[in-house]
């Protein structure tokens, strides 16, 4: 008799499963404008690290160039951290001042 609390079998749940599903927080990866990083380099970075087409990469790069900042993508904390580190490393290697950061959604 699984419904009788006295004779409840050991396999029955002792607590109700919670109804609210917990989703992990997501993070925006942001690219910042500067006056020195070449446009082609930014496009290359977006194609290579964010799997964008040339047209998509151009669009994001031009948005950053005109507005100062743009969201490149939204990822889990771990993936966002990795993307930011990869962008910063590519920029550092080429000695470009390109800045990339992340922000909780
Ligand atoms: N403003 C840069 C230029 O005129 C281009 C640029 C675009 C730099 C986007 C950074 O995130 C950036 N060469």
UniProtKB/TrEMBL annotation:
<dbReference type="InterPro" id="IPR022935">
    <property type="entry name" value="ClpS"/>
</dbReference>
<feature type="domain" description="Adaptor protein ClpS core">
    <location>
        <begin position="23"/>
        <end position="101"/>
    </location>
</feature>
<feature type="region of interest" description="Disordered">
    <location>
        <begin position="1"/>
        <end position="21"/>
    </location>
</feature>
<dbReference type="GO" id="GO:0030163">
    <property type="term" value="P:protein catabolic process"/>
</dbReference>
<feature type="compositionally biased region" description="Basic and acidic residues">
    <location>
        <begin position="1"/>
        <end position="15"/>
    </location>
</feature>
<dbReference type="Pfam" id="PF02617">
    <property type="entry name" value="ClpS"/>
</dbReference>
<keyword id="KW-0645">Protease</keyword>
<dbReference type="GO" id="GO:0006508">
    <property type="term" value="P:proteolysis"/>
</dbReference>
<dbReference type="InterPro" id="IPR003769">
    <property type="entry name" value="ClpS_core"/>
</dbReference>
<comment type="function">
    <text>Involved in the modulation of the specificity of the ClpAP-mediated ATP-dependent protein degradation.</text>
</comment>
<comment type="similarity">
    <text>Belongs to the ClpS family.</text>
</comment>
<comment type="subunit">
    <text>Binds to the N-terminal domain of the chaperone ClpA.</text>
</comment>
<dbReference type="GO" id="GO:0008233">
    <property type="term" value="F:peptidase activity"/>
</dbReference>
<protein>
    <recommendedName>
        <fullName>ATP-dependent Clp protease adapter protein ClpS</fullName>
    </recommendedName>
</protein>
<dbReference type="InterPro" id="IPR014719">
    <property type="entry name" value="Ribosomal_bL12_C/ClpS-like"/>
</dbReference>
<keyword id="KW-0378">Hydrolase</keyword>
């Amino acid at each position: 008799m699984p419904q009788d609390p006295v004779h409840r079998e050991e396999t029955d749940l002792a607590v109700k499963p919670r109804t609210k599903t917990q989703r992990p927080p997501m993070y925006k990866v942001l690219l910042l404008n500067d006056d020195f990083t070449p446009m082609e380099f930014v496009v290359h970075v977006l194609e290579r690290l964010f799997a964008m087409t040339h047209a998509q990469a151009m669009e994001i790069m031009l948005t950053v160039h005109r507005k100062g900042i743009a969201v490149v993508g939204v990822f889990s904390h771990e993936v966002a951290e990795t993307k930011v580190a990869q962008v910063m490393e590519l920029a550092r290697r080429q000695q470009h001042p390109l800045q990339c950061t992340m922000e909780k959604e």
